[in-house]
């Protein structure tokens, strides 16, 4: 299946997609690729907001804002995802859960990637409408979608272990 089809299918049934990915075996390259794609999409989602902020506050130029936004989304976010997954793995070990580090990492990464359509909408809203109730509501929607996907992935991983 194409990546976009997998993302759409995740909104219909995340456990089925996680089970299919996990049944294909451990593939660290796929996980790294997915987290990089998610970072690039997060950068794209943040660009309208960065352009708005640069127009409202010209003290920091748009190119500087875009540079640091790209640096954060493409380099720092993957490191943070891997560190957070390691922390969750330690907690899972302490809780005697039957889930591997790869399963935790991949469910976190896929949840981030699959929730990027909501982030893209959030970025457009933040760029065109600005701060307000709409941005807060979409932020909450993104958080709920992300947590739903992540919990579904973790439960699927534990069931298959």
Describe the structure.
With 161 residues, the protein is mostly helical. It has seven helices and no strands. 85% of the residues lie in helices and 0% in strands. The longest helix has 33 residues, at 62-94. It has helices at 3-12, 14-23, 28-56, 62-94, 101-114, 116-128, 133-160. The model has no long low-confidence stretch (mean pLDDT 92).
**Fraction of helical residues:** over 70%
Radius of gyration equals 17 Å
- What sequence of helices (H) and strands (E) makes up the elements? HHHHHHH
| Count of DSSP-assigned helices | 7
Largest sheet: none
Shape: elongated
The average pLDDT value, as a whole number, equals 92
Q: What fraction of residues sit in β-strands?
A: under 5%
